[in-house]
Specification:
Blueprint (H helix, E strand, L loop, with lengths): L10 E9 L8 E3 L4 E2 L2 E2 L5 E4 L18 E4 L3 E6 L2 E6 L10 E6 L2 E6 L3 H11 L4 E4 L26 E5 H11 L12 E4 L11 E4 L2 E10 L16 H10 E2 L2 E10 L2
Parallel strand pairs: 1-14, 12-13
Antiparallel strand pairs: 1-2, 1-13, 3-4, 5-11, 6-7, 7-8, 9-10, 12-17, 14-15, 15-17, 16-17
């Protein structure tokens, strides 16, 4: 049952939903939204890092954009060409002694290193040595404490759920003359609001029967230059976006939010 004031709290129409079990890895469309703490289940629970523990993203390794992913019931199957790697969904926080301090943007924190065979598979795929590390269950971000909710992140950048408005994507394509694929924004939830850029003024809202509260706008980087499957960045995407969506010194498109119940 919805408790918000229906005159003030908009309903957004969910078009599609995605998780990214491997951070900066392939998307997987999901049809049943389940949450662990405030994050979508299995979203960004694993990550690849280099020898010094630094996050390996598609900006450093655009070949990650060519990986594919299937949900095989009890495991996820990563594959490319004829090679594949199955990783159990329950493989989250086993009792593995070996740990590593990793760097994710401006944050450093300890994580567990996964089985060597996983690291070797991804290393062979990328052509460089990487380590496969597992969801750290990071405590809530300082910015969220005011909501009096315990929010625990995996390898999400700073907030639990990333939302993009497809009406805004349509507007952006007309404004820039560029054909953006929605997955270039790597959001979890793609919605329709009834008009472009309405997400700028959202505070609390529903998607289906699930209430959310907006945390902040999403700042954009060069990741948006990689269309699905491509390994060569097209810098005109971010350039076009920056002409129309530079606000307070940063390029913004989409929002971060968290579920209220």
């Amino acid at each position: 049952m919805k408790n918000f004031d229906s005159m003030k709290t908009p309903d957004l129409l969910l078009d599609s939903a995605y998780i990214y079990p491997l951070k900066s890895g392939p998307p997987l469309q999901v049809f049943d939204l389940q949450f662990d703490h405030a994050c979508l289940r299995y979203d960004r629970q694993w990550m690849l890092v280099g020898p010094e523990g630094k996050f390996v993203s598609q900006r450093l390794q655009p070949k990650l954009n060519q990986l594919k992913l299937r949900d095989q019931g009890d495991h996820f199957l990563f594959f490319y060409d004829q090679d594949s790697l199955a990783i159990p969904k329950t493989f989250l926080s086993p009792a593995i002694q070996e740990s590593l301090v990793v760097n994710l943007w401006q944050s450093n924190f300890p994580v567990s290193i996964g089985p060597l065979e996983y690291s070797l598979w991804f290393s062979e795929f990328l052509g460089e040595g990487v380590s496969f590390v597992m969801r750290p269950l990071r405590p809530q971000d300082e910015r969220l404490k005011q909501e009096n909710k315990r929010i625990v992140l995996g390898f999400q950048d700073s907030c639990p759920v990333h939302i993009a408005n497809l009406d805004s994507v349509d507007w952006l394509e007309v404004a820039t003359g560029k054909a953006f694929h929605p997955l270039q924004f790597r959001a979890n939830l793609y919605v329709r609001t009834g008009g472009p850029l309405m997400e700028d003024n959202l505070e609390e809202f529903y998607i289906g029967n699930q209430p959310y509260r907006k945390i902040k706008d999403c700042s954009r980087c060069s990741m948006v230059n990689l269309a699905p499957g491509n390994t060569v960045a097209d810098t005109s995407f971010l350039e076009g976006l920056s002409k129309f969506r530079t606000l307070s010194g940063s390029v913004r498109f989409g929002i971060y939010a968290f579920p209220l119940s």
